[in-house]
Amino acid sequence: MVAVDRHRVVVLPMKNRLKVLRAEANWSQLELAMRVGVSRQAINAIETGKYDPSLPLAMKIARVFDRRIEEVFELEEGD
Amino acid sequence: MDKNKPAGLRHLAYVALGLLIWFITMVVATRVLHRHPPSIPVRIALVAVAVVGFLPWLISVARLIMAQDEFSVRVHLVAIAFTCAGTAVLLMTGGYLQTAGLLGYVALRNIWIGMGILWWLSIVIASWYYR
Question: Which of A39, A44, A50 shows the shortest C-beta gap to B69?
């Protein structure tokens, strides 16, 4: 995620509760991937923080957990 | 994801068809061009046949990539960026080596063979990075 001020570009890292929510729902990465309509690798990359999903995908993920998007994804503290 | 399977197979079929068209046009154009036809319009037409015959494969691969989920598209875009940068470095290196007299004539077709190898390597590296 990138925020732009007048003089510089600042990268704002995101964290997510995907792994916790998935464990609570007792879903495998593949099962969640199939529910959301992406590959298992995509879910793994999001969980490990290597990939930040687009807003539509983030909303879709929040929806399958029946949560608000900010309950699943948030900016790292201190940013 | 299941509903995307038929679309995925269709895209793969387009890639296979594109590959076939590319192969046929490449063989025909190369064979005739190696006979050095005297007519310039014929030579231009053969080059056009070879280049246009390559486009269906290129387009089908692009459509196959764009049909995947956003994460897979990201991996491919990163790989393509690596490939372009790597090709630029290779071309620059080759150019300087030729200027230095350390590298002889290199056929232009070797550039896209190198680019293909770089592309494959980039996909492997990008997939490994995001794993």
Answer: A39
Note the pLDDT tens digit of each residue in A36-72: 999 999 999 999 988 999 999 999 999 999 999 999 9
Q: Which of B1, B127, B131 sits opposite A37 (nearest CB)?
A: B1
CB atoms within 10 A of CB B41: 8
Helix H or strand E segment including A9? strand A9-11
pTM for the complete prediction? 0.79
Contact flag A44-B129 (C-beta cutoff 8 Å) = no
H or E stretch at B125: helix B109-130
Kindly give the residue spans of alpha helices, DSSP state H, lying in B35-108: 40-66, 70-99
pLDDT at B2: 47
Q: What is the pLDDT of residues B28-39, one digit of tens each?
A: 999 999 988 888
Minimal C-alpha gap between B5 and chain A (Å): 12
- Return the residue of B nearest to A56 by Cα: B70
Residue of B nearest to A39 (CA): B69
DSSP code, position A10: E
